[in-house]
Amino acid sequence: MKRSKIRIGSIQGLSTTVSLLALVMVGSVAQAQTAAPQEDAPATTAPSNAQQASGTVAPSADPGQVADTAPAADAAAPGDIVVTGVRASLQSAQNIKRNSVQIVDSIVAEDIGKLPDRNIAEALQRISGIQIQRNFGEGSSVAIRGLTQVRTELNGRDIFTANNSSNALSLEDVPSELLAGIDVYKNPSADLIEGQLSGTINFRTRKPFDFDGFKVSGAATNTYYDLVKKSKPSASLLVSDRWDTGIGEIGILASASYQKTSFRQDTISTEPFYTLDPSNANDAATLAALGRNGQTTTLPHGTGIGEVFGDRRRLGIDVSLQWRPTDTLEFTGEVFRNDYKLRSYGYSYFAYTSGASITPQPGAVFTYAPNGDFQSGTFTDVPIGNNTSIGSRHSVTTDYSLNGKWKPTANLTITGDLQYVDSKTDNLNSIVGLSGVATTLTQDISGEVPAFQITSANGLANPATYSKGFYLDNLNNSKGTDKVGRLDGEYRFDGGILSSIKAGFRFADRRNRTSDTGYRYTGLTGAATNLRYVDLSGFFRGQADLFGDIQAFSLPTVLSYDDTRQSLGITSTPGYVPSGTNTQAQKTYSGYAAAVFKADDLPVPIDGNLGVRVVQSKVAVSGFYQQVDLITAPDGTQSTAAPTFTEVNEANTYTSVLPSLNVRGRLTDRLQLRFAASKNISRPDFNQLNPSLTITEPGTAQIDQQHVTSTGNPYLKPMKSTNFDASLEWYFAKSGSLTVAGFYKDISNYIQTVITPRNVTFTDGVTATYDVTTYNNASKAKVKGAEVAYQQFFDFLPGALGGLGVQANFTYVDSQAPSPASDGPVTQLSLEGLSKYNYNLIGIYERGLISARVAYNWRSEFLVTTSANGTGNLPQFQKASGQLDASITANITPHLSLTLNGTNLTNTVRSTYYGITSRPRDLIMSDRQISGVARITF
């Protein structure tokens, strides 16, 4: 059998395009009349906080934290060298990091609507200490320093996507064109809102007072996705102006972004693996047939593929109004709305036996790894699962905010802030399943790409092979709201060690409700109908040795939920039942006080802040306990009784005291040392608190089998962390720096998954034991690591080479936490989603009309889950992988630029395995993307 190898391949026309752009770049550099600005040594860093750009709100709505200090082109004097583009964005991000009183990393847009990466999570992965997870080829979530308990803010305020799993924002929902920058705070201070273990991500939008006057900017993009072979458009527009009026200065800004994307994801799966037990009669017979008596032998019970197509649509709108009636009073009102739609649809085709024994073909050759794991062989009479499905999500989040800033005296600043967030999400899942039988299944998992062949009596492309199997559908929706009020004050002192004191109070009323029908199962019988021929010749770019084409239920029909049910003769939709509904209410009352200090007369000048935050949390959750009993007739037959529902209501109140210290020592004008110590909390996610539980009585034939169910734990406590951070930072040029950071986190009340037995006695007196998967605070975790980051433009190089620059960072993270849901002794594993090593290497060129960037991101293997399907509790890991992205921009005029972007140019295939590499799980291939962007700004 052929063993397939992955090849990168080529995108038609890409090499020609790159070559032409290279010629343009050389020509542009040769003809450019403006040399790159020289990077002089930076001036002494001011000990005070960076001056805030007009209208910019720092994290947690604190008025004096961080500013985008990029030089404004509008304000440049005649004859000045104006720094723009990549160099300006790096300089601005460096200034934010350098001048902040805390440890912070930032990303600043190179131009209006132009973050370095078009996806927010993809942009964040360029920051040291951040690792991302992808969903259908796009970054969707992040972990900071190995922890996923991340807080998301928009202009210093709460922002989230309503759902039943997370309390934060889904990063794939927000169009990046609406953002001016992103700040990542890796250690808390008293004035930052609590609720994270790893860091706070603050998304900053632009405000009308950020510009001197009228400003308009627009961009149009077309992106080609090579695996799905489709192109999709996107566009963005910003209009802003400000006026002096009789009632003061007024500014209005409106920004909108519309994106459509497409994708395809091809997956080859091997699952699950079972080790043959010689004490089991069926397994003993299999061992004898294989000639493996007395030898450890592990066989897979199935394999298959998934071919998923899909599309995304993002619509984002941001409107802000600013009014400055006097020099001491300013108001900012803003409405931010993102509307996100996702559809994923396609086919999955498997030959598998699940937990049932699999039968080797007599006389077939089998090979094994040294540990006894199956490598190749042939099985007979294997059931076929042939599914056509669609999943969709529609999320809309609207954020209304009003901020007022008043300076009654030169030393006193009072800030008030009001906010209301409304978020809604609707989900649909619809799956049509066909069944059949494979005469033989031949597998070879020894190569880089698993190969397998499935045969049947009539052929896989013959409709006669299949019969109707089942239909599954599920509906669920979530709604979340947040009402927030905040009042802050800061008094600055003239001279002395104490620079200022800050104090504030915040109230938040967060509510979430989720209703879920659960999956409705409808059994189907008879010959399969409404089938379509599916050509799989291009699957995995043709690089997989597979079984050929198939027949499957019509995908165009499945794309319509109503048409699917009509085709199958199902007239109703699944109903919502009480046990599918749960609510959470969370009220928080927090106050803080902090002292900002500065001692310039010491041998080593220092500054920083010392403070404490006290927060009381009141949490109330509700759900339903559902019990389904059986009715036994006199003749012994059993039927299901109507379910009974019991409402469950639980409440919990706790108070947290969170001290923090941030100190910076300015060793020289260019070198500074930081130290931070703090405590923080992270509250449980909503799904972890959900008390709803469903128990169904087993029938007589199932009473001795294993029974499983799952629920949340309304008594969970918040996770607590004690944090220590230190960094040494050398700023040797305006956009040149070398920084080294170390961190340590000691976490208690760490929330983990556990399995607990529960005995349930039903109304007929039958008692059954259930293994209930739930959560508890039983464990501790530790996270430690180091980060190194470097960036520089090589202005000292001669001629055109002076436009070269580099960004590089490396992160090491080590963590330990008990393995959740483990049987027997607790096993120490790394945290899920955490790579011990990752790095970014970014080459930059900016000179004359041309700006170019090539970025490579790599991460080592990481734990995907501690308990994968069909493997008991064997952990599942993803192998190390890297991805190459690139972009080149030609600034045709001061107002017009053209950009070519390439994403996933290495055609990275992500590979997972079950605990040990001889047991592969998934190989996942996604699109390469090429996009062209035209941007105009006045």
Any chance you could write out the topology, listing elements then pairs?
Layout lengths: L13 H18 L53 H15 L4 E5 L11 H5 L5 E6 L2 E7 L5 E5 L2 E2 L20 E7 L13 E7 L9 E11 L4 E16 L2 E23 L2 E3 L5 H10 L7 E3 L1 E25 L2 E24 L6 E2 L6 E2 L5 E33 L5 E33 L6 E5 L11 E26 L5 E19 L3 E4 L7 E4 L15 E4 L1 H4 L2 H8 L12 E19 L6 E23 L1 E3 L5 E3 L3 E23 L4 E12 L3 H4 L3 E4 L10 E4 L8 E15 L2 E26 L5 E27 L10 E15 L9 E2 L7 E11 L2 E10 L2 E4 L10 E3 L2 E13 L2 E8 L5 E6 L5 E6 L3 E9 L1
Q: Main attributes?
A:
938 residues, mainly beta, 7 helices, 7% helix, 56% strand, globular
What does the model show?
The protein has 938 residues and is mainly β. 7% of the residues lie in helices and 56% in strands. It contains 7 helices and 46 strands. The strands form 6 sheets. It has a 22-stranded antiparallel barrel. A 5-stranded mixed β-sheet has the order 1-6-7-4-5. A hairpin with a 2-residue loop joins strand 4 (150-154) and strand 5 (157-158). The longest helix has 18 residues, at 14-31.
Q: How helical, in percent, are the residues?
A: under 10%
Terminal CA distance: 62 Å
Overall average pLDDT? 88
**Rg from alpha-carbon coordinates:** 30 Å
Write a concise synopsis of the structure shown.
The chain is 7% helix and 56% strand.
